[in-house]
Write a structure and sequence with these properties.
This protein is mainly α. It contains twelve helices and no strands. The longest helix is centred in the N-terminal third of the chain and has 25 residues. The protein is globular. Bound molecules: heme C (2 copies). One heme C (HEC) binds next to helix 9, helix 10 and helix 11.
Amino acid sequence: MITRMRSVAVLGVMSILTLGATAAVAATSDERLAQQLGQQLKQEDVAREEAILAERVRLLQIIKQVESDTTERANAIAEGADRSLLCASCHGRDGNSKQPDTPNLASQQPAYLLEQLQLFATGQRKNFVMQSLASNFNTTDKVNLAIYYSSMPVQPVPFDAKLAARGKGTYDTICFMCHGTNGKGEEGFARIAGQKPEYVIKSLQRYRANALGKSDPEEVKRTNPRMEQVTQNLSDEDIRALANYIASLR
Ligand code: HEC
Ligand code: HEC
């Protein structure tokens, strides 16, 4: 329910942005970005968005139920730690990943982790290794892994301070609405604070490629209506600046 309310709040902010934006021609690229997000989603994307939100509410309830019981939470962490041996070579034993294009899982929002594992399991998000692993887990395994990684601290990653300063403007115009001013996410929205810049760049470029219909069919696809909407007008430079700002968030 809370996710739903938050999404309504976001839509409210977006329509305010559109009203403001129609009054004058958008002067800066950040204003153009805000204008873009204010636009209606395409009809087919509205239905997709609804389905994503409904599923997220369901996943949040599962996580909250386990987390509300101290013993159940401790068991989930212990079981998840055990399972995480399969993940350690890429994501690190503690969820701080070893490779630049592999995401940190440490301190990630547990409902987001669970959501992404489901997307891999059903093939809606594509990655060969992740799809094979996720499709072999039952819901309990996935919940345990999600709660385990969310309980681990995330280690600071290096970033370029100049680029980070440039990315802050764009971040504070639009990205904060769903990922939070500090990038920590909440209620199933992804935490992006401290995420590996290379991974963030690749992710944003993929959403943008889908939005512009330029996805290489051979390329590993990742799709989400909102992220496609907010990335379609970003330049490569905007994306690099944003990734460095996101990496700088603690
Ligand atoms: C061979 C390396 C490898 C192994 C092993 C691996 N992963 Fe991944 N994982 C990746 C890569 C690479 C991505 C990013 C895929 C992409 O770019 O979309 C990823 C993405 C994810 C994501 C999405 C994170 C996000 O921020 O969106 C989750 C969750 C995840 N992995 C969980 C796991 C779990 C749990 C295991 C162990 C059961 C595991 N992974 C094992 C390489 C691996
Ligand atoms: C209207 C809400 C919304 C806004 C605004 C938004 N995001 Fe997102 N973001 C999402 C959702 C939902 C996802 C998960 C999408 C998926 O399942 O692939 C996501 C995913 C991401 C990811 C991938 C995280 C991961 O671990 O793989 C990154 C990076 C990201 N967003 C960055 C941004 C940036 C940068 C901006 C501003 C330009 C932004 N987002 C604005 C909702 C939003």
